[in-house]
C-alpha cells in the first residue's frame, strides 16, 4: 500500500506539472509581424541651432533642431503627434548631406513609438531608416522613411514604411571647414577697381572706378541665411568715350581668372564722355552663393568689361565687408 501511494502521488505531481505548463503556454503572447506605415509632416521648428562653414566642395550648414507635427496611421502606435529631433549636415552647394537623431510618435489614448532615425539628404529629400520599438507591447519597429526636408523648414510629405522615394547615398568625410563669420542683414564690400588687378594687366589705359557691392541677406527663424539680393554700385572714369559690356562678380584668387558667380546684366552701355555711374540690383541670390562669398571674400573679385577689353578692363579683389 505504501508503494502504491507513492506512485499515486508521483502521478498526481506529473499531471499538475503538465497542467501548469499548459496554462503557461496558453498565456504566452504569440509571435506576430505586422506592416507599419504612416504619413507624416513636421514643420514646426523649435530649439534650433545652426552654423555654417566653407570647405573645398562647398558651404556646409550644420543644424540641430526639433521638428513637430502629425503622423497619420491606422495603427495607433504610429498615429498622433510626431516629434523629430535631428542633427543635419547639408552641403548647400551640392544639396547632399545626412541627418541622424530620433523620432517619437505619441497617441493621445496612450500608445507611443520611439525610434532612432538615420538618413541621407539629396536634392531636398531625406531618405533613410528607422529602428525602434512600441512603448507598451515591446514590438520592434524596422521601417524605411522618406520626406521632403530643409533644415529651416522641417519635414513635409513624409512616408514611413511606404512610398516610392528615390534611393540616396552619400559618403561624408569630416575634416577642416572654415567657419563663416556671422553677418547682420547687410554686408558692404568697398570697391576700388584698377587696370593693375586685371589678368593679364591692361597697359596704356588710364581708367579707374570705385563703389561697393552690397549683400542684403534674408534669414530663417534659426538665423540661417536663406537668400538675398546683391547691389552693384560703381563710379567709373575713362579718358574718352567708352562702351561698357559687363559688370560681374567672379570666383578666383588674386592673380587668377575665374568663372562668373553673379552677373549684374548691365547689357551694353555707351558713354560719350567716359565718366558716369552704374547701379544694378540682382534679386534672388541663392544662399549658397552668399555663404560662399561671405565665408571667403578674398576668393572673389569684381570686374568691369568694355568692348575694347572683353576679358576685363578694371578689377578689384574683395576684402572683408563692413557690417550694417
Average pLDDT level: 86
Shape: elongated
Helical fraction equals 10-25%
Q: What's the arrangement of strands in the largest beta sheet?
A: 1-2-3-4-5-6-7-8
Q: Would you tell me which CATH topology of the largest domain applies?
A: Immunoglobulin-like
Number of DSSP E strands: 19
The CATH first-level class of the largest domain comes to Mainly Beta
Query: Per CATH, which architecture of the largest domain?
Result: Sandwich
Largest sheet: 8 strands, antiparallel, barrel
**What portion of the residues fall into strands of 2 or more residues?**
over 45%
Distance between the termini: 109 Å
Run of helices and strands? HEEEEEEEEEEEEEEEEHEEE
Instruction: Please give the domain count.
Output: 2
Structural class: mainly beta
Cα-atom Rg, whole angstroms? 32 Å
Oligomeric form: single chain
Unreliable segments (pLDDT under 50, ≥5 consecutive)?
7-26
Number of helices: 2
Describe this protein's structure:
- It is a single chain.
- The strands form three sheets. Strands 1-2-3-4-5-6-7-8 form an eight-stranded antiparallel β-barrel.
- It contains two helices and 19 strands.
- The chain has helices spanning 2-27, 287-295, and strands at 38-55, 58-72, 80-91, 96-106, 112-122, 125-134, 140-150, 154-160, 178-179, 186-194, 208-219, 225-237, 242-251, 260-263, 269-271, 275-286, 300-306, 314-317, 322-323.
- The chain is elongated and about 95 Å long.
- The N and C termini lie far apart (109 Å).
- The protein is mainly beta and 324 residues long.
- Helices cover 11% and strands 53% of the residues.
- It has two domains: 38-160, Beta Barrel (AOC barrel-like), CATH 2.40.350; 180-323, Sandwich (Immunoglobulin-like), CATH 2.60.40.
